[in-house]
């Protein structure tokens, strides 16, 4: 796919972190970018900085996502790129000892369902609605390509740690969406891939650096090479390659400096 100002993209979670880096990379390539986020102040600031638009969108709400797509398409036309970075989840062990009650408690079904809504179901919602719009658009090139969908999984999809039973299994589910969805959409010329980031220098991790520098340094040292956290712009760089390179399809790609996470 040739990236220029004839191409529109939607980036969820674009107000900060990996989403922001993706939005900035796409905009620098000339793409028209719509940012979906619940952080109105941050999202508007990024959109203004990159010459894009902001849509306040709750990824757990079908109506909110549909309205976001309608607003983005009215401004920029049909998106040909979706980069879905936003997610919501709750952590917890399957069963843990609770000092307050003096007994064992479990990671509740309600907490798991909350995480499923914020990770797996939201990923399907954003991807399938983007695909529906792309399906009705004209092909972009001789391959018949109509668009590309880039989902964000996690290294935890393959080696989740203690307390990540919800997060890890649901990010694995995001990876599981990729191949069947790519096959579903192959006749429409729509590609689907996922990125599994390792430990990146996003705002939550930078907060750890300020609060507990020794822990932060230990995390950086645990990466085989390079011995540091990933830079958000490195995630953005892979997003660009996945968008440009039409032979990337049906892939789950780790971007993690070769780290393999220990149990804790």
From TrEMBL:
Keywords: Oxidoreductase
Entries under Gene3D superfamilies matching the protein: NAD(P)-binding Rossmann-like Domain
InterPro entries found in the cross-reference section: NAD(P)-bd_dom_sf, SDR_fam
Coiled-coil parts of chain: none
Residue intervals passing through the bilayer: none
Superkingdom of origin organism: Bacteria
Name of the protein described by the UniProt record: Short-chain dehydrogenase/reductase SDR
Organism: Sphingopyxis alaskensis (strain DSM 13593 / LMG 18877 / RB2256) (Sphingomonas alaskensis)
């Amino acid at each position: 796919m040739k990236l220029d100002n004839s191409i529109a993209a939607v980036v969820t979670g674009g107000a900060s972190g990996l989403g922001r880096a993706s939005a900035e990379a796409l905009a620098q390539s000339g793409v028209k970018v719509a940012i979906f986020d619940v952080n109105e102040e941050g999202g508007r600031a990024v959109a203004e900085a990159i010459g894009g638009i902001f849509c306040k969108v709750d990824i757990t709400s079908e109506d909110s996502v549909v309205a976001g797509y309608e607003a983005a398409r009215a401004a920029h036309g049909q998106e040909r790129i979706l980069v879905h970075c936003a997610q919501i989840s709750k952590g917890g062990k399957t069963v843990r000892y609770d000092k307050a009650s003096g007994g064992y408690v479990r990671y509740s079904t309600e907490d798991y369902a909350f995480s499923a809504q914020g990770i797996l179901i939201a990923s399907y919602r954003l991807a399938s609605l983007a695909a529906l719009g792309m399906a009705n658009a004209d092909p972009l090139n001789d391959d018949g390509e109509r668009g590309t969908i880039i989902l964000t999984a996690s290294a935890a999809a393959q080696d989740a740690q203690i307390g990540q039973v919800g997060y890890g299994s649901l990010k694995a589910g995001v990876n599981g969406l990729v191949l069947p969805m790519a096959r579903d959409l192959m006749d429409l010329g729509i590609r689907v891939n996922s990125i599994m980031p390792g430990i990146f220098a996003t705002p939550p991790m930078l907060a750890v650096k300020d609060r507990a520098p020794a822990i932060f340094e230990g995390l950086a040292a645990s990466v085989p090479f390079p011995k540091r956290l990933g830079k958000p712009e490195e995630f953005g760089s892979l997003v660009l390659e996945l968008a440009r390179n039409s032979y990337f399809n049906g892939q789950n790609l780790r971007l993690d400096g070769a780290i393999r996470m220990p149990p804790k």
